[in-house]
């Protein structure tokens, strides 16, 4: 995807232990966030069902609203909440950093692609435009 890891801006969607449940005990998503931060990544974390205050108290993570997520280099869809299952891959496109296409980079196949990591595999992978996005799922 030709993205720099250090100082990249990554949105992590979902922090709870399982989908559509506010329980954050034993969540492994926090480990992902910690690892990203160790690499110098700027993480924006959001969850439609988790308690913002509990996440801050237990894990020291300041959650943001979905509306605050913009200009990201990558999205990690970590928990398959109903809100996210109702969306398509195209619904996430406006959240990415928009950059003008550099003709020289395009000629060298060095265009920075958007990165979407679908941990639970809930998105339709056949709807991904592989010319503009790197899509990865477990």
From TrEMBL:
<feature type="domain" description="UDP-glucose/GDP-mannose dehydrogenase C-terminal">
    <location>
        <begin position="11"/>
        <end position="125"/>
    </location>
</feature>
<protein>
    <submittedName>
        <fullName>Nucleotide sugar dehydrogenase</fullName>
    </submittedName>
</protein>
<dbReference type="GO" id="GO:0016616">
    <property type="term" value="F:oxidoreductase activity, acting on the CH-OH group of donors, NAD or NADP as acceptor"/>
</dbReference>
<dbReference type="InterPro" id="IPR017476">
    <property type="entry name" value="UDP-Glc/GDP-Man"/>
</dbReference>
<dbReference type="GO" id="GO:0016628">
    <property type="term" value="F:oxidoreductase activity, acting on the CH-CH group of donors, NAD or NADP as acceptor"/>
</dbReference>
<dbReference type="Pfam" id="PF03720">
    <property type="entry name" value="UDPG_MGDP_dh_C"/>
</dbReference>
<comment type="similarity">
    <text>Belongs to the UDP-glucose/GDP-mannose dehydrogenase family.</text>
</comment>
<dbReference type="InterPro" id="IPR014027">
    <property type="entry name" value="UDP-Glc/GDP-Man_DH_C"/>
</dbReference>
<dbReference type="InterPro" id="IPR028359">
    <property type="entry name" value="UDP_ManNAc/GlcNAc_DH"/>
</dbReference>
<dbReference type="InterPro" id="IPR036220">
    <property type="entry name" value="UDP-Glc/GDP-Man_DH_C_sf"/>
</dbReference>
<dbReference type="GO" id="GO:0051287">
    <property type="term" value="F:NAD binding"/>
</dbReference>
<dbReference type="GO" id="GO:0000271">
    <property type="term" value="P:polysaccharide biosynthetic process"/>
</dbReference>
